[in-house]
Write a structure and sequence with these properties.
This protein is of the alpha/beta class. The chain is built from six helices and 16 strands. Among the domains are: 44 residues, no CATH class; 63 residues, no CATH class. It comes from Ficedula albicollis.
Length: 402
């Protein structure tokens, strides 16, 4: 029973009962007053304890302290926060994650746990200081876009995206490679459709690093490529766009042009801002440009050397502009020269052996004479040595002289 003041243990006026809102003022009235039921306080405490613990613990989906989160947009941004490790409490709803401009140097295994981030599809890790990406660090089941630009990668584990391959479709590595061997780890990305390798000072591309059957867009711009003889585009049957601008290409040989012709889906090739050498070796490239519709902006391609051709459009070059009385393929010319030199040396050797054979008797007699002369000479030395070594022979020699 409660009294008029609403407290337990007193009869109320007129049989009415009032509930005093003690909890709203931070007070707990469980088990208070005379006549309280035994154990009521323990029961109330047991009910309130989980609530109190829940108030002090992190709520599911809470945003990390140094990040900005938008649950409606499924986006988390941790930009320029001086992070040295990936925040472990990323909300599970995130689909687009930006961790940029931080001093991260390593991505260890489990840096992005697949169980906690099942929907993460776009990951931007550009502008950090990443050097190593370890096995299992990017094994995310929904990852489609990855940006590692502006880092200093020297090691990218072939198992970084998981043992069973990765659904990754877009990868950006702009200015991110310090060891070009990293490219060999990309072969485990069978679904990769877009690859950006611009700004990495590439002089060549490792054989096998472009074995990506689903690749549709390849950006090799702003590198240091001087030729494509060792670059194989075979197997890129889905390739649609190839950017080779801002390199040091002087000429494209027939072997490379034949590869371009063999790619059925290739429709866009960018060759601008290269150092084209307009001598006889460029005839094949000029002929291909005039007949092909694959090159974008081909009218703007101009000669960088020699001086007499400086600034001349490649499409306006004709046979009279080039002095092509000598062979145009220098490697073939050198190969022919080596073959001719070998034939000449073989002929000289054969003549020398023939002369020796024809004069074998005279040579044999000459060698015998030399042998006899050497023998007589050595016997004289031996005789003098014996005389000098024996005192009796020395006295005898002296008496004989007298």
């Amino acid at each position: 029973p409660r009294g008029r003041d609403g407290r337990w243990g007193a009869a109320g006026h007129g049989g009415r009962r009032r509930v005093r809102p003690s909890l709203l003022r931070g007070k707990v009235a469980c088990g208070a007053g005379p006549g309280a039921m035994p154990g009521r306080g323990a029961l109330c405490l047991g009910l309130l304890l989980p609530v109190l613990l829940g108030c002090g613990s992190a709520q599911p989906g809470a945003c990390p302290a140094l990040c900005e989160c938008s649950e409606p947009a499924k986006t988390v941004k941790c930009v320029n926060r001086n992070l040295t490790a990936v925040p472990p409490d990323l909300p599970p709803y995130v689909r687009s994650l930006f961790i940029t401009g931080n001093p991260l140097t390593d991505l260890p295994a489990g840096a992005f746990p697949a169980q906690r981030l099942p929907d993460l599809a776009s990951l931007n890790l550009s502008g950090n200081h990443l050097r190593t990406v370890e096995a299992g660090s990017l094994a995310l089941p929904a990852l489609r876009q990855l940006d590692l630009s502006g880092n200093a990668l020297v090691s990218l584990s072939p198992q970084a995206f998981g043992e069973g391959g990765s659904p990754l479709e877009e990868l950006a590595l702009r200015g991110a490679l310090r060891d070009h061997g990293v490219l060999l780890s990309l072969a485990r990305l069978p679904d990769l459709a877009s690859l950006n390798l611009s700004g990495n000072h590439l002089r060549t591309v490792e054989a096998g690093s472009l074995a990506l059957p689903a690749l549709r867009q390849l950006d090799l711009s702003n590198n240091s490529l001087v030729g494509l003889r060792n670059v194989s585009f075979q197997g890129l049957g889905q390739l649609q766009s190839l950017n080779l601008s801002d390199n040091s290409l002087g000429v494209l040989w027939n072997s490379t042009l034949a590869q371009f012709r063999s790619l059925p889906a290739l429709r866009h090739i960018v060759l601008g801002r290269n150092t084209w050498v307009c001598d006889c070796a460029i005839e094949d490239l000029v002929a291909w440009l005039k007949e092909s519709n694959q090159v974008e902006g081909k009218e703007a391609l101009t000669c960088a050397s020699p001086d007499k051709m400086l600034g001349k459009a490649l499409l306006k070059i004709n046979g009279s502009d080039l002095n092509c009385s000598v062979p145009t393929d220098l490697p073939s010319q050198l190969q022919t020269s080596y073959v001719f030199l070998g034939i000449v040396l073989a002929l000289i050797g054969a003549i020398f052996l023939l002369v020796l054979y024809l004069n074998r008797k005279g040579i044999k007699k000459w060698m015998h004479n030399i042998r006899d002369a050497c023998r007589d000479h050595m016997e004289g030395y031996h005789y003098r040595y014996e005389i000098n070594a024996d005192p009796r022979l020395t006295n005898l020699s002296s008496n004989s002289d007298v």
